[in-house]
Amino acid sequence: MVTIRDVARAAGVSTSTVSRALDERLPRSRSATAERVREVARELGYVRDPLASGLRRAGTSTIGVIVPRLTDTVMAMLYEEIAAASAERGVFAVVASTEDSPEAERRAADSLMRRRVDGLILTTARLDAADAPPAPQPAPAPAAPEGAAAPAPGRPPVPRVLALRTDGLHPASVGDDLLGARLATRHLVDLGHRRIGLVGGPEHASSALLRHQGHREALREMGIEPDPRLMTGDSFSMEAGEAAGRRLLALPDPPTAIFAVNDNTAIGVLAAAHQRGLRVPEDLSVVGYNDIPTVSRLPVPLSTVRVPFDQVARGALRLLLEEREPGGPPPVLTATPTLIPRASSRPPRRPA
Hints:
By secondary structure, this protein is of the alpha/beta class. Among the domains are: 4-48, no CATH class; 175-307 and 335-340, Rossmann fold (3-Layer(aba) Sandwich). 38% of the residues lie in helices and 13% in strands. The protein has helices at residues 4-11, 15-22, 32-44, 50-58, 73-88, 102-114, 177-191, 206-221, 238-249, 263-275, 309-320, and strands at residues 62-67, 92-97, 119-122, 160-163, 172-175, 196-199, 231-232, 257-260, 285-287, 304-306, 332-335, 338-340. A six-stranded parallel β-sheet has the order 2-1-3-4-5-11. A four-stranded parallel β-sheet has the order 7-6-8-9, sandwiched between helices. Strands 10-12 form a two-stranded antiparallel ribbon. The longest helix is centred in the first third of the chain and has 16 residues, at 73-88.
């Protein structure tokens, strides 16, 4: 990427001169120096980075990332992508975890605000609005010494965007959860499965609800009426997936395949199947969601839906400084997932 320093070196001027000459918010200078700077910038292919320049003007070139927990591989992967994309722009990303608790999220936001971050990316959005934390407010400006002039007004509210989850109120960068669930379900139906269990996630997470919705829609499109008895689960953890798997596999007429809306819960389902002496995929097909690195290295590699976390991260960064008309709907950037078939899914041995 061509930087302002590259342009300054080639034009034989200072970086501040380049910055002024290329700043579209300022009156266009017609001086020979400014014209030369613009010509050099065009020749080098310089493109202004609005995120980096905007955050530098704001103050610390630091953004805060709030996640439910870093022990969740999905959240760790997304944070690493955000940190890498930020570093490319000269911005530092710092992370805080909340255990998916609204009160802990408030404390994390306050802590990051005290460190005067220039923006927040949250993966903790909840649809139960009564528990949702208010938008964090900027840290107050320090008091002026006695006899000194009053301090300038505080900084404007810090931008905040969401990633992976939405709440309908804030800008968000997400994967297409409806599409991903439809891909997973269609894959199992195309293999010949008709009794397909669903291991869902928490009801406050938009990602879980949309994957549940996509699963039901795909079944109906294929002429299969969704059966509520085949739908269970309320968390993204392996333990929750194992408990949900045991419930489904203990039914008098158990499913021949299970779609888990998260790879962790899919691993829990595999454990439940093993406890009952079932073989995957001979006795039970399983499909997960996210494609965390572990699942391709299991004894039976897991079929799953791959989320492009790099695209989600870059989208969230772009939204931090995107200028929007007041009163308009919050923008949502949606990245397209991909089905990754592996050994854990195959046609059923017994009639579906």
